[in-house]
Write a structure and sequence with these properties.
Keywords: Cell outer membrane, Membrane, Signal, Transmembrane, Transmembrane beta strand. The protein has one domain: Porin, CATH 2.40.160.60. 5% of the residues lie in helices and 49% in strands. The chain is built from three helices and 25 strands.
Length: 472
């Protein structure tokens, strides 16, 4: 599943050995330094078609719902019959970045054309199955699903290119199996085992400007890099409990344990600058070991239900501050043919991150209109996980307001259809104190690199989905 770009050819230059080694490190840094987020780190604040209809207020379920596998595995104890759930969501984030003008050395001002996200909408599938066992207190569920996250693609020569050009083709997913147990009529527990998988493909640009000629943004000094990180085995788990202190009230709590994606053979393909100074030396090897940590999630919900309505208030804490750094260990990557030096290995290094913890609040519910039709609605607010200093076109994680509507319709006793739609309202963000700079291996002290994160970020998103649940 490694993705390679044929236009990349590995070349190098006559300059000093440290600069050449830095070029390899810089291309990785340009691809992965702290700008790998979509929302609250990597995920949008909902998942699942029916759950999205109530703004992901799904931690304290009161009726059969296979989405409980993700939100709170104790909820699968409400499955009275075996059920199969298939759903598909479409989501998109529309982004416009207007980079702040740059003051040139001669006193003039350089302005930049706004850039827009050109990635197509993402389709997010899931398949879940579960039900009771012969033991009336024991239940099971299993499935495969993908968290909600969108893609980004921008012009290869745009003002944003030193942060991101393209990350389409990236994705995260879970394979999950869980059991739930009814301790009593009012108390249930659940635990699930998961395999967390992911593929990150990131194309971006560094700068080969050394301060002796040209300008830091000259295109013939750009270093184009594509980094692909794949991890297909990362075990983790979730657990939860539900308690009914009263016939009308349900309290739910759950934990999603942290995980770590690690790829011992991540690929780093580069196209060195086209400037004549980068003509002669070569590089050997293009693989590295890269590790990316993912955080713990803690959820708490309380639901009130009557014969025709139910409403839940849920709070979710995501410990994204665990993403403090990304480790990169090149696998026998060397610079060859350096005059007077010969072959020189590229040493391991770490990429500092600046993510912060995120909290979201979800209020949503359902209204039974008749024996077959249920209406849903909700609102959620989530605090972004990326501060102004490291905000960029990849780390598009502002505070988010989500408004959602949904409905469920029973076609017959065995088949139900659900649909939902949600708007993600994200306030315009104006960044004036960015620390996001060009990646330049010849400028360890940031004396000649440019700040490229300042500017105005406008964003809006939507989610729409349809699911079918079959009881058998």
């Amino acid at each position: 599943m490694r993705s390679k770009v044929s236009m990349f050819k590995r070349t190098s230059q006559k300059n000093s050995a440290p600069l050449l080694a830095g070029l390899i490190a810089a291309t990785t840094l340009a691809a992965l330094a702290p700008r790998n987020a979509d929302a609250a780190g990597f995920f949008l604040p909902t998942r699942g078609v029916a759950s999205t209809g109530r703004a992901a207020a799904s931690v304290a379920p009161h009726a059969a719902d296979l989405d409980s596998l993700w939100y709170n595995p104790a909820g699968i104890t409400l499955l009275e019959d075996r059920a199969l759930l298939l759903d598909l969501a479409v989501l998109d984030t529309q982004v416009t970045f207007s980079r702040a003008p740059r003051q040139m050395p001669d006193g003039s001002t350089r302005t930049y054309e706004p850039v827009q996200n050109q990635a197509p909408p993402q389709t997010i599938p899931q398949i879940l199955v579960g039900g009771p066992t012969k033991n009336p207190r024991l239940f099971w569920a299993a499935g495969a699903y993908t968290p909600y996250a969108s893609g980004n693609r921008y012009p290869i020569d745009g003002a944003q290119r030193y942060v991101l050009i393209d990350n389409t083709g990236s994705g995260l997913g879970y394979v999950h199996a869980a059991v739930g147990y009814k301790i009593s009529d009012t108390l249930s527990v659940g635990v699930g085992l998961q395999n967390f998988m992911g593929v990150f493909r990131v194309v971006s640009t560094g700068s080969g400007y050394a301060g002796m000629f040209g300008d830091p943004e000259d295109e013939d000094l750009d270093i184009l890099a594509e980094t692909t990180v794949s991890s297909f085995f990362s075990p983790t788990a979730n657990l939860g409990a539900t308690w009914k202190p009263h016939a009308s009230w349900t309290v739910g709590a759950s934990l999603q344990l942290p995980a770590r994606l690690r790829d011992g053979n991540a690929t780093i393909d580069t196209r060195m600058p086209t400037h004549p100074a980068y003509d002669n030396a070569t590089t050997t090897g293009n693989e590295a070991e890269i590790a990316v940590p993912f955080p713990l999630h803690a959820r708490l919900g309380i639901r009130h239900a009557t014969s025709r309505t139910n409403v839940e208030l849920a709070v979710v804490y995501q410990r994204w501050s665990t993403l403090t750094e990304v480790e990169v260990s090149p696998n026998e990557v060397e610079i060859d043919g350096v005059p007077g030096v010969g072959a020189m290995p590229v040493a391991p290094f770490v990429l500092p991150q600046h993510f912060r913890d995120s909290i979201s609040v979800h209020l949503g519910g359902e209204w039974i209109l008749n024996d077959r039709l249920i209406a849903r609605g909700g609102y959620a607010f989530e605090r972004g996980a990326v501060p102004d200093a490291t905000y960029s076109v990849f780390a598009l994680d502002p505070d988010k307001h989500m408004l959602s509507l949904g409905a469920g319709y029973d076609l017959n006793a065995r088949l139900r259809l659900d649909l939902s739609a949600a708007a993600l309202i994200m306030p315009t963000r104006v960044i004036t104190d960015s620390e996001v700079r060009q990646i330049n291996p010849s400028d360890e002290n940031d004396e000649i690199t440019l700040v490229v994160g300042n500017g105005t970020y406008e964003h809006f998103g939507y989610i729409a989905g349809l699911s079918a649940r079959y009881f058998f």
